[in-house]
Write a structure and sequence with these properties.
Elements lengths: L3 H30 L17 H26 L1 E2 L6 H26 L9 H34 L16 E2 L5 E2 L5 E2 L1 H19 L1
Parallel strand pairs: 1-2
Antiparallel strand pairs: 3-4
Helix pairs in contact: 1-2, 1-4, 2-3, 3-4
């Protein structure tokens, strides 16, 4: 049965794949412009590079790294402190959102309409590059929306982003904290008191 956590992992997998494709496209563009053959009509055969392509290459690498980290946290239910909370996830997503948006917007102003030269593979690479930059941005926006809705609905903005609030399902690297069904964190002392009350009540019923 599909869950919201499974959907989030699927979206991050798509973001990783799209970022990998964008990485390949930007690397192809940089390889071509940095090694222009003599007599190439582009820039009179003088090697160069497009700063916005370099920006998209770095952003795609960051997107792949971020996606891998979040998939690991959600799948394994790990807690690495504040960075692994919904708030930490949203900070990272907002950074990627801005980077992808800037890269896609500037690339579109340069290469948004290259249908006139689609007979050349260089133009086709740029057209696909712009398309994947926008698709990565759209995926980041969707993931942000889903995470915000889940965090707000459950009052879990500063709780682990894996979304599982049973203490037995989480691996805490720091001092363990226990969470009740209302998503409020219980201190170990309070949990011990509750446990004693439950044990005492069970013992009296068994008498």
């Amino acid at each position: 049965m599909a869950t919201i956590h499974g959907a989030r992992v699927a979206l991050y997998v798509l973001l990783w794949l799209f970022s990998a494709v964008l990485l390949g496209l930007t690397a192809t563009r940089l390889h071509y412009t940095l090694r222009l053959p003599p007599g190439d009509p582009l820039n009179n055969g003088q090697s160069f590079y497009d700063p916005i392509v370099a920006e998209l290459l770095v952003t795609s690498v960051l997107g792949m790294i971020w996606s891998s980290v979040i998939i690991h946290i959600i799948h394994r239910s790990y807690d690495y402190g504040r960075i692994s909370t919904f708030a930490g996830e949203l900070v990272g997503l907002m950074a990627l959102f801005t980077l992808y948006l800037v890269g896609a917007a500037i690339a579109s102003t340069f290469w948004g309409d290259l249908f006139w030269c689609h007979t050349y593979w260089q133009c086709r690479v740029l057209t696909v590059l712009v398309a994947f930059a926008w698709m990565c941005w759209a995926l980041v926006f969707i993931i942000m929306f889903v995470s915000v809705m889940f965090a707000v609905a459950n009052g879990a903005l500063f709780h682990p982003l894996h979304g599982r609030y049973d203490a037995r399902d989480s691996y805490f690297l720091r001092r363990p904290q226990l969470v009740n069904s209302d998503f409020r964190v219980m201190s170990p002392a309070r949990f011990h008191c509750v446990k004693l009350l439950i044990t005492d009540g069970a013992g009296r019923r068994g008498m």
